[in-house]
């Protein structure tokens, strides 16, 4: 099985604050070795802005992107699934999308960002937020949900402008293959294009190397295709 590459050293990692949804939001920003690049939003799992999400943000920076991970929980991090469920339920989808739209605006305002649109990559809860955000935010031109959990009904994708590359596990009980097919058909029907939704012989959270469900082969394949997709869409 291929090993996960170590992130290259990046010149700047910092905690940042920015106005969003009528409040002050916080996040983790990583710059690429060149100091400049296309903007990518990294959206957390239901656990919060964990060390794992910060490491993923660093990996995107090492690949040449200006990567921002907004903190949707305001500093809280869950230590078990019950707490994660409580934190997720306390964040209405509409509020999360507002916060993420503010993060998009902040990312595009940075002088280090060379793109006029951004990519959005999210995991678990964050993968669902990628789809909710892309459905209403025209400044997102590349959307990559990793095993994205949709809370409630699918959003209205009729105004979607982003290209979508999705990664899902065949053995994922949270998002079984039939739900992935429902998402594919809804997107095809509402947008007139068929999204690239990929299934891997893995379970949920297969990219997260801190979880028992981590699958190195699926993670490597999904990561490489994501990086190539984002560079293709964002420049």
UniProtKB/TrEMBL annotation:
Task: Write down the Pfam families for this protein, in alphabetical order.
Answer: DLH (PF01738)
Parts of the chain that traverse the membrane? none
* Any one GO molecular function term: hydrolase activity
Concerning InterPro entries, the annotation shows: AB_hydrolase_fold, Dienelactn_hydro, Dienelactone_hydrolase-like
> What are the Dienelactone hydrolase domain coordinates in residue numbering?
27-232
Q: What is this protein called?
A: Carboxymethylenebutenolidase
